[in-house]
Amino acid sequence: MGDDSEWMKLPVNQKCEHKVWKARLHGYEEAIKLFRGIDGEKSPEWDKFQPLIVKFVTDSNAVAQLKGLEAALVYVENAHVAARTAGEVVSGVVCKVFNQPKARARELGTDICLMYVEKEKAEAVQENLIKGLENKNPKMVCGCVETLHRALSEFGCKTVGLKAVVKALPRLFESREKAVRDVARGLAVEVYRWMGGALRPALQGVSPVLLQGLEDEWARLPGAPATQTRFLRSQQHLRDTALQQHQQAEAGPHQAHGVGTGQCVPDVDPFELLEPVEILSKLPKDFHDKIEAKKWQDRKEALEALAGLVKSPRLEVGDYGDVVRALKKVIAKDTNVMLVALAVKCVSGLASGLRKKFSTYAGHVVLTVLEKFKEKKPQVVQALQEAMDAIFLTTSLQSLSEDVLVVMDNKNPSVKQQASLFLARSFRASSPSSLPKSLLKPLFAALIKHVNDSAPEVRDAAFDALGSAMRVVGERVVNPFLADLDKLKVDKIKESAASSGGGEEEEEKSVTKTQPPAGVPAKTAQPSNKAAEVWPAGGPRKAKPGGAGKGRKPPVPREPAVPRGLQESELSLEECEERATAVLPASCVQLLGSTNWKERLASMEDYLQAVEQMDSSQMPCQALVRMLARKPGWKETNFQVMQLKLRVVEVVARRGSFSRVAAGAVLAVLVERLGDGKCGGSAREALSSVAEACSLAWTAEQVVSMAFAQKNPKNQCEALSWLAGAMKEFGFAGINVQTFIVHIKTALGATNPAVRTGAVALLGVVFLYVGPPLRLFFQEEKAALLSQIDTEFQKMQGQTPPAPSRGAPKRPGGQEEEEQQEEEQQEEGGAGVVVDLLPRTDISGQISAAMMSKMADKNWKVRKEGLDEVASVISEAKLILPSLGDLPAALRARLTDSNKILVQQTLSIMQQMASAMGPALKQHIKTLGTPAITVLGDSKMGVRAAARATLSSWEEQTGFRAWLEGEELAAELGRENPFLRQEVLGWLAASLPALRSAPPDLQLCVPALYSCAEDRNPDVRKRAQEALPAFITHLGFDRMNKAAAKLKPASRDQVVALLEKARVFMPAKAPPAKPTAPPPPARPAATRPSQPSSEEPEPRAEPRPKAAGKPKVHAGKKAAGKAREEEEQECSGPIFILLPGGKELRARDERNLKVLKWNFPSPREECVEQLKVQMSPCVARWMLEELFHHDFQHHIRAISCMIEHLEQEQEAVISCLDVLFKWFTLRLSETNSSVLMKAVDFLKLLLPCLARMDYHLNELEASAFIPYLILKVGESKDGVRKDVRSILSMLCKVYPASKIFPFLMEGARSKNSKQRAECLEELGCLVELYGLTVCQPSAPRSLKEIAVHISDRDACVRNAALNTMVAVYNVCGEQIYKLIGHLSDKDMSMLAERIKRSAKTPPVPSSAPPPKHGEDKAPPPHPNASVLRKPSEQTASKLRQIRAQSAEQQTPPPPAEFSLDVHLLEQSGSPIREMPELYQPSPDLLQTPASLRSFLSRPRPLPVCQEELRPSPAHSINLVISQVASGDVNTSMQALEQMQQALRRPGVMEGLSDQLLLACCLQLHLARSSHLANQRTPRPLVTQLCSRLLDSMFMLLGVPSLACEVSVAVLREVVEELLAVLLDPNVALLDQGSVLLEANQVLSLLLEKTNHTRILSSLLVLMQESLESSSTSKFSELVMKCVWRMIRFLPATVGDLDLDQTLLALHNFMMVFTRQRLRALTSDLPYRTLKTLLHTLYKFTGPQILEHLSLVEDRRASGLETHLKMLLSAGPRDASLYRERHENILKIFNKITSQENCTQGLSELAVFRQHHAEVDLTPYLKRVPAPLQTLVQQSLHTHTSKRTPAAGGPAPQPSGGEEPKPSEYQESALRLLQESNIQAPLPSKAPLPSKAPLPSKAPLPSKAPLPSKAPLPSKAPLPSKAPLPSISMLSRAPQLPPPHQSRLEPAASNLDDLRKKLQRIKEKH
């Protein structure tokens, strides 16, 4: 018992690991009770037992182990941290539990494993169970199998992976133990329930008896599919759904069948369960020798050996290139048919065994196999079919299409037939998404030729292929391609589609009937190479065809869209006359042939009127136009009659169903009349209508052939001109390029120069659609003509073809199809389709065996000769076909050549191939593209650069998506080569964002990407991090995070952190737009705002033309397809995306040199790509494509759209302002004037918008934009320079002028003389406006550099420099000569002369009398000169005019330097120069030499830019605020004087608190760091400066409205600077510490008066930074004392707090400083501070505080919610006590406000205050009227004095016996005091009393609140300035009564009364 008493006292966790088994048993029992009582799965109590769970299940004592298993089960079920122990615990269960004899223990072990599966740890559980199957103990094996059985039965195949289980089954069936074989049989039956017949191939090695027994058990399984019965924790929401389905299943068998259908589809591929077999090493050593032997027996022996090896169902991946090439040679050249069939079967076996891995070799053999179909032996044809079908399964039809198209033109009908049949099978095996129109178009063109073939078997095969395609993609897609077929053939295609679909459905039904209930395939045990078994029912079903889906009816047959030329036959003249007479007036027909021209004219007028009014459906078009040919017919001599005839043709073609037969009757006449001067216009209109009716392609071909059949050059020239215009109107669809090239070459060879000119112009239009390849056909022309063609092409370079405006709406049939086809042509630009029509050369015959042998020679010089020959062949061919023979294999070998020169030459040849082959290059990606990627890992930079250029050229032709298909890219990325990884990752990061959708194979690159993210090479890690956002964009964050979960723990944490960081760059999804919302606008380039800086909003731009030009469709039809609707919705949403923290992250990356610096003379490609990546999360995807499009018109459209969205998305624009400025930098560097002017327009709207939002540019934004803007100041175009100067003037409103000055100085050093002159002029303007303080880094240094330009060679630069010097002279006077230093005599004389002629009167000192009116007269205005300078200075005058035009509004002349006109701040009119009549100053009252009023009212000299630079009142305040932070002490103090005057004016400083406080902080920092260290600066002056700064801050904070608007960031800066002042020992020596006392008072007022939420947030941020940094402990203590001070205010201010923001700030602080970290600090003050703050917040808010955590995303991350819940459980009494106290106070104050109970309420309040002295009554006092406030304060003071008579003197009382003064008198007196600069004498060196509240005085009125402050020591007055009333003097002014009392006071009767009042005020002070 003694031992028991020892361990009984131990805690539970120690009992569980005690050495005594009874102690452990007792501990397990207590642990079970404890686990069931813990509330919450994330409680910290679970962590204590995490290391002990393994010991629970592995206990050595059987009794204790059983109880430990129960405890472990409860722990795993309820603890969140239990998932971390899955691997160890399951391993312990397998080793220590499954071998136990007790069934209960084994059952608990299984339950524990299944509970881990439920908690998302299925992989770890299955891994340990599979390992347990290898154990020799049969009990352990049986336990593992049974657990796997239960897991699969309950959770299903999607949770438990079947692949590992199936692989383990054969080994289990071979066990000697019957028990193991029995449980394995049960597991096999369960696996069969989930995957069906796919299990059979994996069990072929099992004994037949056992297999037969399994077949019997499988046959007895129920027909219903397996369903999941237990769900993971993340799938708990599916439990109710499953329960409902189960209830429906029990309702009846019919419902049960419906419920069970589709519950679980086996997604296991039997191929994946097979073990790959390696056959390359098993090939005979003499295989390659024998297969090329002369004896056919040797070749047969080699092929039979290979055929036996390829029978393996799955082959190991390897290099089969040599084998495939050997087989290809046998198929192509062997004369023995039997060997050919055997070789084809080997190819089929390789394709079936390698699957997708065979795609690399597919391109080598497809063309050879297809051409071999010329053999007629059935066994060969069958083998070839099987091989093609097997090859198709390894690749895509897109990759095989080029080879198929080549053989479609073969002369052998068997080849054409088999090619069509292969296409039919391929179509049936494809999905609609895998058959885009770009693929179908060339294939359908070839099949339509086969439809008209003479061989019936070819026609039938073509019909089968077309019908299969129609069945898959639908009739709507196929109909436009069948326009030229007659109705019989179209019907036959439809019949073929129906028969193929019907047969498919019937076979599906039959297969369903004959299959076993579980869905077992017919035969999968031994995979065969026969096509009938691989593709049942004609082909494999990768996806169900679009037309054969369930619930979808087959399309209703309708008449196809057939051209009108095939809809009617040619009519005879009698029939035409009969039909025309039926619809025309009789007189009209009779007078057509009259000999009198007037009668013919009248007849034609009636003819035209009848045609215009005729019903278009009943109009006989052919008859009407052929009637016009009646004598005199088209030989009409009267031009008026002929014009009417042509007009009739135009109306008939436009309104009626105009056929090509009718067009053929009039086209010759129309072409002949094109050259007619009077009828040519009508002929052109008629031709356009005919083209609209009969298609431009057909009409144009007829017109050109007819025009060049004539000899009239005028007609030829006009025909070419009409055709050029028609192409722009109708588009380029359907035009035969080759035919047109022939006609254009004929026109270029004409003798008439006008015809040649017209041909060149037509070529320019064709160039818009075809592109640069068009020039290849005219290289043989003469040099002069070729120069004209190049000039025309240069004009069209960069332009986009206009959208077709005619042609589409006219066609009645297949309207939707035509619209969609035209849209695709517009998207592709027409060029891609046209380039395919250009003739290409087959160079496979020119690549001889000699070339191949040369390239494989051992001598590198010989290899180089071979490469040179190949390059010459490609260059001579210009455009080539993709069939290259063995050239790709030879080039691939040279990519790994040891001679790097040959490698670079090979890469150059590959670039030639890209430009010559075009998009067909895609089929060579696997052969040549992937090896080129390997070259990126070369150690030489030049080789890598060549490889990058090659890959870029290939990517332009093939697109980037094709490179991501397959595992090749992932394999290259996985290589341990830092150069290769850097280049590939950079390529991915640059190309992936522009990709609309990535293939699923991109997922294969993720493991290699994560490996690169942890690479030892920092460059590789950097590139991997740059590529992460692009991967997340396409794969999604969840999939990336799931892939990261498979990594090791150390790697996983690092990768997850990188993913979270990259997630910041992900754009938020735009909300779906309404269908009626207009798409993004596209403002035309010509419409530019004339006044960008005006405050009126710019009118909205027109909508995008693409959306506006769409024709309306009939009711019931969709206006557009799904893809088009999604695009419109995407384009109609916001274009700018608000990304919090994105700009700061980009700035941090640039500071840390993680990205390229935005600094270049001209834009570099890598900078542009980097900017594109940075902008991808900031703008919409379609906008990103517009911004970085190669066509400038897209840039114009993008800028127009940004102008439209600027006002609506201001915050988002600011969030991406840095990258936006960088993008406009690129546009400023362009030479295209349209883009440049559009960019300038946006900037002129953007900067005023930023100024209105009070936004100021940061350094990153300014440095990325201003230097490049200044470069455009030197632009040669006047309009650009004018706009740039206007933008520079606007910049000063959003960026300090002192910081713009260095940029302009740098611009003045340019080699461009215009830029130097303009920059100097801008510098002069800045000096005139802001004074010499704008000169940075110092005035002497800057002025000396400016003065150097006086001797410049350029006259404009000299004048600009002299003008700037004059501006400096106007500011500083004769001091200029000291500042500029030594100049040459010539320059000095020029400067003196210019100053003499142009300078203003030097500035007058403040002590001098003001000048008289009229002395400073300006010269008369001149249109080209400034008002203050002579007309000869054209450059300066032009600048002034531009400034005047760009000004927002006309304002009065600005005040003199450092002065502030207070009246301008209140009204925008001219300043009042007359004093009020009421006020007459007397000598004894006004003691200052000059008042502010007189200072402002005296005439002042105008600045240089009188009319141009008049600032607004708000701008004047900004100027004065900027002077507060000046480096000159006197300047700063003068500015502070002006600011104090403004602070006394109510409403003047609204919105400017942040600016003034920041300026004061900056000046305080400057005073401490610079002025105190400077011995030349007098200490009293520094003292006065600091005091003046603190006075200004005190005055601002004393105004409630101004104090509450201070932001968090500014509050943090102010507190930090004030604390720094308090800690500075040098400041403590100033004036015996008076500055410290003032700073303390300002800090106290700051904590009390500002917004309490913001100040508390700023203190928490400052506290965090001080604890993190190396700041002194004193600074941290002061910050925490401020927090404690705020805690004391909480009882009164908790109601005003924004608790959501406050808790968010606390959360952010606790995320960095957790409780553990705070406790680890040397001082416990931070921890106590945080704890007290949280406790106080909870004390006064109660449990409702938990409802204010809405802004906190992860509440448990920081522990804030946990701490608050602990307070909730510990202290509900405090909250109830607070509420009870609060209610008592409210009741007392209700009594005080009532007349009956006022005295009782005062007594109760005094008693309450006596017992609760800590309660602050200020919030309650503010709710009662002002008189009652005074009464309550007096009452409380009286009771306090009675209780504590010796505590001190009585509290200050209001002056007794003195009645309240009239409010009118007091307001007038106070205003006069402020305006008169009255300053009473201050007591010298008076000690500063501590700041105290004013309980006994009435509060200040809300109009002009002035806080009280202790008196300050006297200070020396400013030099040459009138003294300013200090805050201390104003604080002693009498308090004003409440506003409501002013109505009771009598008004002042006369001036004497007012003087008496003023004298009384003066005596008091």
Structure, explained:
By secondary structure, the chain is mainly alpha-helical. α36 (680-694) crosses α37 (696-709). The radius of gyration is 46 Å and the shape is globular. The chain starts with a helix and ends with a helix. Residues 252-266, 501-566, 809-834, 1067-1127, 1402-1512 and 1844-1951 have low confidence and may be disordered.
What fraction of the residues are assigned to beta strands by DSSP? under 5%
Helix count, per DSSP?
97
Shape: globular
Number of DSSP E strands: 0
Would you identify the regions where 5 or more consecutive residues have pLDDT less than 50? 252-266, 501-566, 809-834, 1067-1127, 1402-1512, 1844-1951
Q: What portion of residues is helical?
A: 55-70%
Largest sheet: none
Gyration radius, rounded: 46 Å
Mean pLDDT: 75
Structural class: mainly alpha
Distance from first to last alpha carbon: 91 Å
Topology overview:
Blueprint: H1 2-8, H2 12-16, H3 21-37, H4 45-49, H5 53-57, H6 62-78, H7 86-96, H8 103-118, H9 122-132, H10 138-155, H11 162-173, H12 178-195, H13 208-219, H14 238-251, H15 253-260, H16 270-273, H17 287-291, H18 296-309, H19 321-333, H20 337-354, H21 359-371, H22 378-394, H23 397-408, H24 413-428, H25 437-451, H26 456-473, H27 475-478, H28 487-514, H29 531-534, H30 573-583, H31 586-590, H32 597-613, H33 621-627, H34 639-655, H35 660-673, H36 680-694, H37 696-709, H38 713-730, H39 737-748, H40 753-770, H41 783-796, H42 815-828, H43 831-837, H44 849-855, H45 860-877, H46 887-894, H47 900-917, H48 925-935, H49 941-958, H50 961-964, H51 968-973, H52 978-991, H53 1006-1013, H54 1018-1035, H55 1037-1044, H56 1049-1063, H57 1105-1108, H58 1122-1132, H59 1142-1151, H60 1165-1175, H61 1181-1187, H62 1192-1205, H63 1210-1215, H64 1217-1228, H65 1233-1252, H66 1259-1271, H67 1278-1291, H68 1297-1307, H69 1313-1330, H70 1339-1347, H71 1355-1372, H72 1376-1380, H73 1385-1398, H74 1434-1446, H75 1462-1466, H76 1492-1497, H77 1513-1524, H78 1529-1543, H79 1553-1571, H80 1579-1598, ...
